[in-house]
Amino acid sequence: MCRLAAAFAVLSAACLLCSAELNTRPVIGVLAQENLPRDRFARGSSYIAASYVKFLEGGGARVVPIRINRTEEEYTRIFSSINGLLLPGGDVDIEKSLFSRAAKIFYDLALKANDAGDFFPIWGTCQGFQQLTVFTANKNLLTLTNTKAVALPLTLTTAAHSSRLFRNFPKDVLQSLSEENITSNFHSWSLSMQNYSRTSKLRRFYKVLSTNNDGKKEFISTMEAVRYPFYAVQWHPEKSPYEWADKPGLVHTTSAITASFYTARFFVSEAMKSGHRFPSSSEEERALIYNFSPVFAGTDAIFTQTYYFD
Ligand SMILES: *[C@@H]1O[C@H](CO)[C@@H](O)[C@H](O)[C@H]1NC(C)=O
Ligand SMILES: *[C@@H]1O[C@H](CO)[C@@H](O)[C@H](O)[C@H]1NC(C)=O
Ligand SMILES: *[C@@H]1O[C@H](CO)[C@@H](O)[C@H](O)[C@H]1NC(C)=O
Asked: Structure pTM?
């Protein structure tokens, strides 16, 4: 009898899980940012590099571009319609830009939603990583590093192997990530281990999953939040399969492409745990990136294709 009751309890626990059914049609928002000053292909006022869109699409999601300079009310509406947010790399002021303003609104909404049991994941790449550290620390603690165009192997921490982000990666993929120079670094600023360790707000919020070193400073290259589905990489998993400028730091080997795919797949699988949806399918249709066409900037451009917005 007892055993039956226990079996029943296990079954109903399993059903609680299955009642939080996975969303197999996830839609992820990608935040636009102010156009680069010397981008001769630019039109309108903001852009999204197409590689971020393809990265998420390749992982099994659809993408909604989130424009800058919108009202808080509109962002709140978008938030309740999408299943996750990606903050891309770039080159704007992470304390004063319209990108930063919009990112902060979503960050606060995501904290509140997750606290209330409404699962909402955020992914930050490069500038997105840096932006998240500024929000969490309520301060810019970044430091200059010599990491402008270099592919590095991740130095995984012991926490990496049990992390949500990496624990389901195939062993050989994790091995390539940690042994081969396949993670693209294109940043001047980094969060040093020193400033992370000194800052309790960061230490309590994020677990460090990997570090790198520019020869002088050890900086964080991958982290995940302890209590929130927030993930941040200082490297660029979207570049290997989708950016083709013939530049140092860009790697197109099989292991680099495979690692990119597992990274995208992980974040999309997080988004599948979100039940947010658009109020109607016509609103969803109007919001999707398919309403826009990217511009091809030539094989030598830093972004092979870019979406521009008014
Ligand atoms: C958007 O940009 C316009 C023109 O630059 C400005 O007047 C307006 O206040 C901005 N709106 C927001 C929400 O920042
Ligand atoms: C730590 O952060 C401060 C900004 O508060 C910055 O000036 C300094 O260079 C950083 N130091 C290191 C080692 O990262
Ligand atoms: C490979 O990574 C190491 C750091 O582990 C670095 O010293 C080296 O410069 C990198 N090689 C290339 C070709 O980027």
From this structure: 0.93
